[in-house]
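Repro:
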Amino acid sequence: MRVLMVVRPASAGIRAHVLALAHGLLGRGHEVELAAPKNADVTRLARDRGLVVHAIPLAAPLNPVQDPQAIRVLSHLISNGDFDIVHAHGPKAGFVGRLAVRMGGRGVRPFVLTAHNHMLTRSETAATARWRYRTVEHSLERYVTRYIAVSESIARELTEACALPAEKVVVVRDGVDMIPFLAEQDFADSRASLGLPVDAPVVGLAGRFSAHKGLRDLVAAVPEIVRRVPGVRVVIGGSGPLESKLRDQVAALGVDESVAWPGHVLDMPRFLSALDVFVSPATTESFGIALIEAAAAGVPSVATRVGGVFDIIIDGETGLLVAPHDPKALAGAVAGLLGDRRTATKLAEHARRRAIMEFSPDAMVEGTLAVYADALQATVGPPR
C-alpha cells in the first residue's frame, strides 16, 4: 500500500505521531511519503529517518496566498504519485489535502483525516477559529472517507459538537514509544540533575506553561501540599508565556523554597524517574501523552477529569482523578499518594501494564491500518 501523509509545521505530539506511524507502516512493508513544509522540524526529522518528503508551502493558519499554491502542488503530487491513501493530520492539512485530492483526478482516492486536538470544546480556541473549523468540516465532510480521533473525547467532539457522521469517525489512540521510559534510571543522578535531595518527597510535571495546562491551579495547591507533606518539593519543568505570572504567584504564596524550576526538560525519562508523583492539572486535554510516559516510567499520576485523560487513567486503578480548577482536591490527592506508598506503587504498576498493552506504537499502527482497509473498501474496492 502506498500512503501519502500531509502535515503542517507539526511539533510535539503531532510530530511524534506522524513519525511513529510512518516508521510502523514502513516496517510492515508499506510505502510512505510525506508532504510537509520545507523547513519544518517534522520534515527534517522525517528525512533523517529515510522518508521521502515532498515540500509544500503549507502554513499553519489559513493563508489566502499560500494555501491555493499548496493545493496545486499537492494536487499534482497526488495525481502523479499513485497513492492508495492520502492521510492528513490536523485541520489545516485536512482542509488543503481534501481539496487537493478532489483536484488530483485519476479516480477517487480514500482520504483519511486524523483529529489530534479539540477545536470546538477548548476554551482557548478563539470564536472565529471555532466557526471556521465547523464551517470547513460541514462543507467538506463529504470528501473525507474516514476521520481518526486520537481519543474518545475528540471523537465525541466530532460527532456531537461538530455533527459529523458517527459512522465515519474511528478512535485510534496515540501510541507512545515507551522503551526509553521503561529503562531503569539512576535515581540519585536523576535527583541531582534537578538539584533535589535524594530523600525529599517530590511531585512535578514538565510541559509548556500555557493556560490550559492548569499550572495556576497546581501552584495554588502548593501551600496545602507543603502543610500536609513536610519537606516536599514541587518541580515545574518547562517554559512558556505564563512563566512570570506563575513565579509571581509562587512568591506571593510564600512557597519559593518548595518549588523548583528546572527550565526546559530535554531528558523526560530521567526527569520522571526523579518524581514520586506526576501531576497533570490541565483544564482541557486532547489525549495526555505525558501521562502514558509517566506510567511507563513507573510513576503514579494525579490528573484532572478532562478530555482524553479518561482514555488513559481509570480512577483508583491506574491513577487518581480530581475535578479541574480545584486546587484543594488536587492537593489532597497528591498529598495522599505521597503519604501512602503502598497505594502509589499499586497504581503505578497497574498503569504501566495498561500503557504497555494499550498505548504502544504497534497498537496505533495496527488501528490505523484497519481504518485504511475500511476506507479503501468504502471507495475503491478491496485493499491491495
